[in-house]
Structures are given as C-alpha cells and as structure tokens.
Amino acid sequence: MNDGLKKFLLDFYNWVTGNGARTENEDAMTELPPVLPFTMEPDKIQSRFHEKTLQERRKDWINLHGLSVFSILYRSFSIITCVVIVGLLLITVSELPPFGDENNPANNEVIDRYIKLGGNETGAQNIVAGMILDYRAFDTFGESAVLFTGAVSVLMILSAARRKNDEPKNKLHSGFNDRNFLKRAPPIHELKDDDAILRGVASLSIPAIILMGCVVIINGHLTPGGGFSGGAVLSTALILCANAYGFKKVHEFFNERTYIFSSSSALLIYALSKGYSFFTGANHIESGIPIGTIGNIFSAGLILPLNICVGIIVAGTLYGVYALFSEGEI
Amino acid sequence: MTVKTLAYNIPFISIFLMMIAAIITPVLPKRHRIPEKLSCICLFIVAVLSGYLIYALDTANGDIAFNFPVGHYPAPWGNELRAGLLEAVLAFCYSIAMLLSLTGNFQSTAEDIPERRRSFYCVLMNLLAASLLALTYANDIFTSYVFIEINTIAACSIVAVKNSASTIRAALRYLIMSLVGSGLVLISICLLYDLTGHLLMQPMHTKIIELVKNGKYIFPLTVSLALITAGLAIKSALYPFSFWLPDAHGSSTNASSAVLSGLVLKGHIFLIIKLFLRVFGLDVIEALRMDKVIFILGVTAMIMGSVHALKQLNIKRMIAWSSVAQVGYIFLGLGLNSVEGISAACLHIIVHACVKPMLFTSAGGLSAAADHLKSLHDLLGTFYINKWAGLGFVAGACSMMGIPGFAGFASKISLTMASFDSPLIIWSLAALALSSVLNALYYVPAMIAILTGTDEKIHGVHEKIIIPLSFKISIGMFIALNFYLGLRFVPLLRLIMRGVNIFG
Amino acid sequence: MIAKLLINHYEAVAVILSGIGLANLLLQRNLIKVYLFLAAKGWVSERAAPILLKDGSEWVMDVDKYVNPIPAGLVLTGIVVSVSVTAFALALTLRFYEKYGSLNIDSALSQMTKEQEILEAEAALKVDIGDNIS
Amino acid sequence: MPDIEISNAEYYLLMFCAIFLSVSIFFCLFRSALGPRFTDRVIAANMIGTKIIALISVLSLVIGEDYLVDICLIYAVISFIAVVVLARSVISNKNYQDELKEIDA
Fold first, then answer.
1. Lower Cβ count inside 10 Å, N or C end of chain D?
2. Residues of C in contact with A157 (CB under 8 A)
3. ipTM
C-alpha cells in the first residue's frame, strides 16, 4: 500500500472517530457524520447501552487508576528493595576484613610479585601501568573495547538519526513513530557573536593543554597517568577549540571519517601488538620486545606505544561524544 | 602440553578474530554488504575452529582441559582463558547459531536498518560474538565483568538500531535493568576480591574452600554469592526480573531478537554455571542453600513465562515470553545441583540456542508474508505464502513443546532423567509436565493459525514473495540441527557430561 | 557492629552511596537524573576496595612502601566503563525525548498506550476495509 | 621530589585551611543548587572548581606527593572548559528563544 493511500485512510479514520482536523464552523454542523457499516458493527453499538460487564469495569478502573496504583506499588517496592540491599551490604561490610590491615587476604603473593618484580619484569616505573598494560593486559584491552563499543553505539544512534531518508520505508507504522517533538536549539557553530576573549584564551591555552596531554600520555609508564587520562586531556583541547572557533574549524581537521579511521587504526595496532605479545607469551616463545632500563622514556616494552594508542582512542571518543551531543555529528 | 598447538590456541584466536573483525569493520567500504559478509566469514571460521577444538579434546587421552595464559605471566598474576569440552561445545553452538541467524535475516536486516547504520550494526554483532566467546572461555572474574559490559552495551544498541519509538523505549528499559544487574555484579566482585585476594577463578576457589572450612566470612560470602547471582539473573531474564525482555526482544529487528534471545541470555547463564562450578563449587553452593533458591525461581519462571505467553497475540512477544519459560528450564537444571542436572541445563542451553533463533527468523519470515503485521490474527494462512518460514516455525514449535524427535525433547528428557537422583524429584517432574502442557497451549494455536488459511492463500492467489536463498539455507540448516539434536542427543549429552566433570 | 563499621568506614560510606544510587535508579522517573546517580554509583562501588596509591619515584621494591595496585586498575576500568555506559544511555535518552517529547517514563507510558491504540485501530480499519472490498 | 618537612604548626594550619575550604565548598554547592539565576549557578560551579584545586594543593603538601599538582593543572583546565561550555549552551539557547519570540511577534 503506498503512502498516499495510507495517509488517506488514516485521515479518513480520524474523521470517522472524530479525532481529525476540525472544520472552522463546527458548531454550525448539525448533521452527524454517517456511521459506516464496517467501522462499527450494530451489536457493538447496542452493547454500549447494556450495563457494564465486570471485565469492562475492571478495564475502566485500570484506565483510571492503574498508573497511580502501579507507581505507588513500584515506589514502595523499590524503596524496600534498596533498604534491604543497603542493610545487607552494611552488615557485610562490618564483617569484611578491616580496612588497611596488613594481614588482609588481598595482600597476598599476587601483590608481592607485582611490586617486587614488577619493575624488572615489565620495565615500568609506574606499577599500576605495568599491571594494567602488562600483567592484566587482557582486561585493559576489553576496557578499550568497551569504550569503542560505546562510541560506535552513540555514533549509530545519534549521527544517522537526523537524516530523513534513513527511515525504513516499507514499514506500515513508521509514519506514527516520526513525531518530532523536540525543538532543537541551533547548533553552536551558528552563533553570530564572535567572542574575542574566549578566542584569545583558547589560542594561548590550547597548545599548553595539548602539550600537557602528550606529556601525561608519554610518561604513562613513569608517573601516574597514561593513555586514559592523557586522552581525556587531549579531548578537552578539542572541545575548547570547538567552543572558541566553532565546530566548522574542528571539522577541517577532525571529522567523522578521520575519527573512525584514527580510532579504528589505533585500536587495530593495539590489538595486533598485544595479540602478538599474548600469543608469544602463551606459547612460550621469546617475543623479542626490549624492556629497557627502568625510568627511561623508551622503556617498558609495549607500554609506551599502547598508551599512545589508547590516548588517541580516548581523545577522539570523548570529543566525538561531545560533538554528537551538541551538534548531532562529529 | 597434551593438546596440539593449534587446538591450544583456538580459544584465544576465536575471541581475537571477532574483535579484529569488529575493529576493522567501520573502515571497510559499506557497499555490496561487505561488513555483513565479513562477519559471516569470521563466524564461520570460529565455528570450524571450535569444531576442531571439540575433536582435538575428544580424541585426546583422558579428560583434558587446559589453561591458556594471556600474556607472559602464569596463573595468579596474569589473565587466563580456560578451555574444556563444555566450553568448546558451547562456542561451536554459539557461532553456528549466530551465523545462521545473521544469514537467515539477511533481507529483513536490510529492510529494517538503513545502509549507513548497517556497518555499525555489524560492528556490534561482532563485538557481541567476541564477548560471548570471551564469557565462555574467561577464567578470570574481572575479565568476565569487562566483557559483560561490552555485551550489555552492544545488546542494548542492537535493540535500538531500528530507531522506532518502541524500540528506543525497550532499549532504555533493557539498559536500566541490565545496569542494575551489572552494578550488583560489580559490588559482588569487589567483595569477593576483598575476601579472597584473587581475581582468577581457581585460586579464588581454593581460598573460598579454605574460608568455608574455617568458618570465616560466611555471611559476606553468602551475600556476594546472592548478589552476583541476582545480577546475572537480571541480565539473563529469570522470571521476576524479566519484564524488560518481551519489549526488547519483541520489538527489535529479527536478527537482533534471534541473537538476543538465543545467545545473549545464555552467555550470562553460562557465567552463573561457571561461578557455581568453578568459583564456589557445588558443595559450597549447597552449604549456602543457593541451589534451592535457584530451583524455586526456575520453576516459577517455567510456569509464569508460559502463562504470560498465553496472553500474547503478537507472535514475537509470544516467542519472547516463551524464552522466559525456557530460561526457567535451565535454572531448574542448575537448581538440581548435580552433574547430571547441570549437564542437562547445558544441553538445554544448546537446544534453546538452536531453536529460538529459528523461531524468531521464521516468525519474521511469516510476518513479512503478512505485510509486516505481527498479530496472530493477521498471520492466518501465511504458511502457504512462505513455506520455508512456516516449516521452520512448525519445527521450532514442536521442539519447544518437547515432541519426541525434535530438539526440545532431548533436553526435557535429560532434565527428567537428572531429576530422578534429586530429592526434589516430585516438584521438578510436576513443573516439567505442567510447563510442557502450557507450552503446547500457546504453540498449538499459533501453528493452527498459520496453517489454516483462506482458499486464495492456499491456492496461491496472492502476490508472490521472493524467498531469498540465504533464508532457505538458514532455515534448512536450523531444521537439520533441530532433528540432529533431537535424534542423536545421547553422544552430545555424554560429551557435555565429560565437560562438566572436568569443568571445576 | 558499629565499631566494626567505623573501622571499615570507607566501605560503609561507599555502600550507603551506592544504595542511594540504586534507589534513585529505581525511583527517579526523570531519566537524566537516573543517569547522574548511576555514574556516581559505578564510581563509588569501585571504591569498596580500599585504595590509596603511592607511586614512589625511588626504585624501592618493598611491599610495605606501596599499597595494593589492583584496586587502582579496577577503578580505572570502572570509570572507563561508566563513561561509555553513560554516554550510551544519554544518547538513548536523547532519542527517547525526540520520540516522546518527555523525559518522564510515566507520561511516556501513557503516550505509548495511546499510540498502541491508534496502531491497533489502524490495523483493525485495514482488516475491515480489506474484508469489505473483497 | 625532595621531601618538604612540614612542622606541626604548619600541619595544623594546612588542616585548618582544608577544613575551611571543604565547608565553603558546601556553601557553593548549595548556591549552585538553589541559585535563582543561571549566572549564580555557573559562578558557584566555577568557585567549587577553584576551591577544589586549592584543596588538592594543600593535600599535596600534607601528603608530600608532587603528582597531585599535575592533577590540579588538569582540574583547572577541565573546570574552565566546563564553564565555557555551560555558558555557550545557555547563550545559544537564549538566542534561539529570542528568535522564536521574534517570529511570534
């Protein structure tokens, strides 16, 4: 059935049930619209004048009070659940091993090795970096994949949505779902006023921020920080740039294509290099990746390049999410 | 090393292959449906590899399972994967079912999802497959958590991909419920780490046994077990927590419904099994009385899921509620707390993972034949329009009812056999019987509805719809799998039992 | 018990905060507020494992000098996970708002029932017309 | 980092500063929650950021760890950008409302 016919039928139905567009001189209309034989069967009309059956009363009652009763029940139920869970957890916490005690079960041989041999085995001065990117690197790989999944989902849900021709055409009901209630504010880059103070501050601070981000990323294996934190700092530089100069400016060097390409290739490099390391490790093959001396920039084997890859992914993703939310596209 | 080198590396390779496929999909060209083909090829490779792994483990001397250290460091320090017969069988089944549900819904995916989104959709499907495989093989509780999160986000977004109001709402509800679930899982993982000082499963197990023997920290252990089970139960739609499921599975596109209902729920259930067998051990579970709770919830789910399904007129929602009932069967098997019970539960996981995607795929085919209407009233006589879909639906319905010769019979009979050794025999037999009757009560009318048609439908006075070859192949494979599982389930059950015995 | 709670006061506070987060998740009808508390919860529940990281710059490899690094790694993972989940949830909410014109699930629920009625009515109309024409 | 020895008196002074800052952060929080105008909220949020930076610096002196100063820098950047973004979005919304009014009028 084509769209025109569907619309006609819908209008027709609305007109019949009285929900359609009103005519201007409605009060003057005395004649009732004819009751069409196929929309209201005669016995159904008669049944309206009968006393309501129990089922009908139940339905009416639910229509009237259902939502409020449901919400009261739901509220009380969830309060009870939360109180019970918190109580249980409080009792649990009081029975846990005491905080900060040296004899806790958590202080065992695992931590011993991480701390005693971590420096020599991974070459990283920062034990946490050594742990997350070498000992337990598979978790961290999964974590980057979570970020990637989130970015892809947000991109899928938001970016393609504004295009009209994306809606499926052959669906019967798609016309109903397209109600666009939201009146969006215009995108920020369309602002007319041009903010001199902000631009001045931005032109001074963006290089500093980028430098800071790079330092945090590159020193990830030496000092606290690393790919995730440094990437977040880099993304703030991008966001500031977008706010001061408009999204169009950022678009010139960073758009959806570059974003997808850079994060995919960074993640691919990450996956391949880590995959090589996993593979050689599990099969007891010498991997041949030098560890270097602790404390140098070029040390700790794969941790430095992995941190750089993670930094690229995080910077792109966080900026991308911001741009998607404020602009609808990267 | 008793296994050959290739087999030894298979768990890692299969997870990694799906990951890399997901990573490179966004940069691939979108035309000619290259992303989807890539997914299918990768899934096929994973299936072949898993088949080889089953063969290698089956023919190796003795019952073996091996640990695969991910990285250079051995067990308590680095991450680990662990593969045995059970994991290999499940991985094989997941990849086959996912491959078939992707190929079977090739056309409906193209109709529902615009081209721009389809490449992202494939990324999410690949990530979903990778996370399922990782949940199957992971031997580390925190790795499992990370992959649960990947699974959650990917699952919610493949619900929302259709971009209609109802799917968005369903995805939101699904997201909120599964976030509650993963919050509980996370709290419980923190507690467990605090109590044992390990994140890997086997060292954790020894520590827990020690704690229980000494009578220390019993209450925190119980609470963390309860929380992690509750969290995973929410995610796997055990009955009282399953109200998000019909919306999410009923309104999304067919491929998503098939994968979500058939596989994603199973990933979390398998994690519960792993937790029970490997982390806590059956004795501890029995001592903490968790098995009874699981049993009662399972029985409730079996009955209430069917009762809800009886009320549905929308065919996809009906099948979705039937999933709730089938999840109940799995938890019933778990609640028997014996090797036989858990083997039967695993068999049911496999059976359901093969049958439910078939039901969703054929329901999609049938509703496409009825001009995309989904109410049973509109599906009258659609069997004669799309015979392949009709056959698939009939086979799936027969299987769900447990008619001998079909796949569902296999798991039902093995659940029955398993419950003979249990003290709960009367309850479990009664529940099985009642649930089978209820299943029949809603699947038979649906079958009758699609088989009774008006004359013009039977004699072909309707517009011909072209059934794509991929749909035929997929349904044919599904039906063949169905019969294979129904007729030759004994060797499979034996294989699973061997797997469960060496699982801990 | 109170004394024990005081010893573990970090965990106790974390648990109470996560309880508040959970309550808000279940109670709030306004989706945005739900997510705010959710993000807090994800972060706080990680804190249930004690951390106070000290990465000394000397090469002393002595257990006493450092605090357990594993929880730090877990927190990092937890933060990244909660960031991506929150972003995804917000994206869904945005679409939800575009479809329903409200952030409130309740009013969206009534909206939904109306919509369903329209759909059903339309379907019935279609069937009726089809019967009549044939 | 060369360990800075702090005397007892300095320690108490720093702790007093920390407590004072925390209390005043609470007041700012109230203002940012109650604030009738948007500018009140933004300024309060900005002040919270500034005070937290001061708090972290005090903490870094008390604990004797220099990496906390790096965190200060990053925090400063983030709070600055947060305020800029908030202000921008409000301005664009206001312009939009004005346009709507013009169209209506």
1. C
2. 88, 91-92, 95
3. 0.84
Number of structural domains (chain D) is 1
Complete DSSP assignment for B181-237: HHHHHHHHHHHHHHHHS--BHHHHHHHHHHHHHHT-SHHHHHHHHHHHHHHHHHHTT
Chains B and D touch (3+ CB pairs under 8 A): no
User: By CB neighbour count within 10 A (0-12 exposed, 13-18 middle, 19+ buried), where does D36 fall?
Assistant: exposed
Q: CB B12 to CB A155 under 8 A? A: no
Smallest CA–CA separation between C123 and chain B, in Å?
9
- The reply to whether residue B153 touches residue C88, judged by beta carbons under 8 angstroms, is yes
* Angle CA C77–C80–C86, to nearest 5: 135
- Touching chains B and A? (3+ Cβ pairs < 8 A): yes
Instruction: Parse chain B into domains and list their residue ranges.
Output: 5-501
Element (H, E) at B368: helix B339-369
Range of the domain at D34: 8-104
Q: Which two tokens stand for residue C63?
A: 């257990």
Query: Which residues 360-389 of B are in CB contact (within 8 Å) with A?
Result: 371-373
A205 touches chain D (CB under 8 A): yes
In eight-state DSSP terms, residue B420 is T
Q: Whats the size of chain A, residue-wise?
A: 330
Closest partner CB to A136 (pick from B27, B78, B217): B78
Q: Is B224 on the interface with A (CB under 8 A)?
A: yes
The whole-model pTM stands at 0.83
In C, which residues are within 8 Å of D60 by CB distance? none
Q: Which amino acid is at B314?
A: N
User: Residue B36 in contact with residue B106, Cβ under 8 Å?
Assistant: yes
Q: How big is the CA angle at B69 (ends B230 and B83), to the nearest 5 degrees? A: 60
How many angstroms away from the CA of C54 is the closest CA of chain D? 8
Answer whether residue D72 is part of any domain.
Answer: yes
Which pair of tokens denotes residue C5? 């709670």
Quote the CA–CA distance of C19 and C6 in Å, as a whole number.
Answer: 18
If contacts are CB pairs under 8 Å, which of residues 38-77 in chain C contact chain D?
54-55, 57
A: neighbours with 3+ CB pairs under 8 Å? B, C, D
Q: Give a yes or no: residue D3 inside a domain.
A: no
Rounded-to-10 torsion of CA B385, B390, B392, B393: 140
C70 CB neighbours in chain B (<8 A) are 193, 199
D65 touches chain A (CB under 8 A): no
Are the beta carbons of D17 and D62 closer than 8 angstroms? no
Cβ pair C65, C54 in contact under 8 A = yes
Q: CA-CA distance, D18 to B173, in Å (whole number)?
A: 43
C-alpha to C-alpha distances, B380 to A280, B311, B413, D75, nearest whole angstrom: 59, 18, 33, 64
B166 touches chain A (CB under 8 A): yes
Please give chain B's pLDDT, 504 residues, in tens. 445 677 788 888 899 999 999 998 888 887 778 888 888 999 999 999 999 988 888 887 776 788 888 877 777 777 888 888 888 999 999 999 999 988 888 888 888 887 778 888 889 999 999 999 999 998 888 889 999 999 999 999 988 888 777 788 888 888 888 888 888 888 788 778 878 878 888 888 888 888 888 887 888 888 888 889 998 998 888 888 888 888 888 888 888 888 988 889 899 999 999 988 888 888 888 888 888 888 999 999 988 888 888 888 888 888 888 889 999 999 988 888 888 888 999 999 999 999 999 999 988 888 887 777 777 777 777 777 788 888 888 899 888 888 888 888 888 888 888 888 888 888 888 988 898 888 888 888 888 888 886 666 666 556 667 788 888 889 999 999 898 888 888 888 888 888 888 877
β-pairing verdict for B79-83 and B66-70: antiparallel
